[in-house]
Design a protein that fits this description.
Length: 321
Amino acid sequence: MAKFLVTGGAGFIGSHFCDAALAKGHEVTVFDNFETGQEFFLQGAKKNEKFSLIRGDIREFSEVNKAMSDFKPEWVVHFAANADVRRGLERPRRDLDYNTTGTWNVLESAQKAGAKNFLFSSTGSVYGEPTVFPTPESCPFPEQTSLYGASKLAGEGLIAAYANGFAMNSLVFRFVSILGARYTHGHIFDFMKRLKNDASHLEILGNGKQTKSYLHMTDLMSGLWMAIESQPKGHNVYNIGHDDALIVDQSVGYICDALKIKPRLTYTGGTRGWVGDSPRIQLDCTKLKALGWKTTQSLEQGVRDTVKYLEQQAFLFAEVK
Ligand SMILES: NC(=O)c1ccc[n+]([C@@H]2O[C@H](COP(=O)([O-])OP(=O)(O)OC[C@H]3O[C@@H](n4cnc5c(N)ncnc54)[C@H](O)[C@@H]3O)[C@@H](O)[C@H]2O)c1
């Protein structure tokens, strides 16, 4: 059994990771400032005596450093981030502060506390607008198209340098969009929030033809744990996503069908929903599959499970900014 310090452990993905780690018998400390995380996502974890919670901000080196030196984890799992891709240009310092400098704060304090293993949640957005599909980890990097992608790629660079310089073992995962219970941001959340106010009309950003891969939380967790349990050595980068992709219009179709509504659809037009929206994301996950990983949930199931969860937890639409 190992000690895991999980930054962002109160969030959508982090809270599932904590539940899985505790179910496997590990000791878990969450470090989170609850900016987008939810206390009630940790309800189950809090009942476990191997769980503890520290409220703190990764932008404050002294706070992360204290948590790290008190707990002395074997694994640091770094999910805390500004995960809002779309509004990057409205607050241009934010991605740098959270995703790059914040990542350095976590890395440096992990290294000082003697943590030997580091997992980082990066993103398929680091490929900008690639020309190779499905996109492998070895794809030549085109220009960055979002501050979010650029700040995550800078974080990846720091992790590679620490892994090589301080003999840490690192797992960098480039996620597609994740679906499932506790989903609090992304296109399904936005669409359902707007449809709650007006079920007769839905405006879609772009032309509705953007094509994206997604992944069910169940399959994300099995991939992360398969890589952790493979006891990785050195610096490792893995794509993680479904082989299938959905066109935005298809996804809207599943959402409306699940909600039993038929809104009039209008489009803002253009091949991108916003500046930095990649018209196509589809990752080649051959490398992770070589560890034995495979997906078990269809994307349609992922969308339907997400809609069902948000219908049951409708108060989240008011809770989450
Ligand atoms: N959800 C996705 O589809 C997706 C896709 C690609 C990558 N990712 C990455 O996965 C990670 C988790 O994403 P998520 O969807 O669970 O997001 P989330 O917003 O639900 O979780 C982020 C967590 O980090 C915490 N946090 C934010 N800023 C912090 C700070 N300064 N100090 C301490 N805690 C802070 C939040 O309170 C929250 O609990 C992020 O790094 C995100 O960039 C997510």
